[in-house]
Queue: 2 jobs
Job 1
Amino acid sequence: MARKLAPGKLVIATHNAGKLREISALLSPYGMEILSAGALGLPEPDETGTSFAENATIKALASARAANLPALADDSGLCVAALGGRPGVYTADWAERQAFEGPPGRDWYMAMGKVEGMLAALGADVDRSAAFHCTLALAWPDEHVEIFAGQVAGNLVWPPRGDHGFGYDPVFVPQGHDLSFAEMEPTKKHAMSHRAHAFAQLVAALF
Ligand code: IMP
């Protein structure tokens, strides 16, 4: 039986503005006072784990300890079937510019292009199926942790389409739909995404 989350302050252990926006929207009905690790100036730990659950736990525990408050972390990524599940836990790393690619920072268009280039190299009739995975870790200052996971299946399109969302949204069309996540109204994405599925479990268990 999961530990319940009492009303009060909750730190969102992310420095990613897109994730913060989505997590705040998903939590808005539950009356928590949301603080972000970025706004609190909490350190961003190295994601040294080899699974979404390990990395989510590392981030949640780091914020819970530093803020002395419950903290929620999301570790997520895109797993492409024809690439053996890559980029997976390294999804954000694939957007990191190398020195020869420009100033330090993340370039999502470049990252989507890397995935597309690897798929194209496998031939015109390559399997374009992929899934977004999301693992949520909620950590308390006494180091108790609860984990919830969700995923959404879909197909990759090229070129990128749409201006909403973040990260790889413009190239991901969820199964049974025609619009990419970046073309949909955010509320529609929030209702069906990997993050929404993980949140549904979190809400059922914690509130
Ligand atoms: P991390 O969880 O901070 O390691 O980063 C995961 C990366 O996966 C994000 O920076 C995004 O690029 C990508 N990602 C995760 N969730 C989504 C999503 O909902 N839409 C698009 N990209 C996502």
Job 2
Amino acid sequence: MHELHLSAQDKAARYREVLPQIAAVIADETDLTANLANTAAVLKEAFGWLWVGFYLAEPSGGELVLAPFQGPLACTRIPYGRGVCGHAWAGEKTIVVPNVDEYPGHIACSSLSRSEIVIPLFSGGRCVGVLDIDDIEYARFDNTDALYLEQLAQMLGVLFAAQKNV
Ligand code: SME
């Protein structure tokens, strides 16, 4: 399913439906992998993006490693500061990329990807991973996505504190 051209208002409304759904799903489960997997699935179904998933920082801090996702095969490891994901991790800031071909150092996992947004995830004040979303259309992501996905990231951050494997 590929959801086409939601207006800014419709997009905000969709997020306001979806975020409480995710909150409800993860409230009943403490396992991080299970919760990230369901979060990726709910987002993919709701918005129809090409790829939705997580990369988690190795405890040593060297690389991001692929975690639960929905979409085509993806690269498994991203070094600190590399690609959009590595930049968001190092800079601890959301990055919106309207055209991936114009982003220096972009790592192309799928040749179908045209635009991307990466949101850092924080636990205990440090960045422990990122939520990465790609789409086949240019400029698919904007400040509305950043606003709601950062709220989601905050919600997910709480999960990390309870986990021993991160
Ligand atoms: N494009 C990302 C790599 C991950 S894939 O898009 C799933 C990047 O430049 O970091």
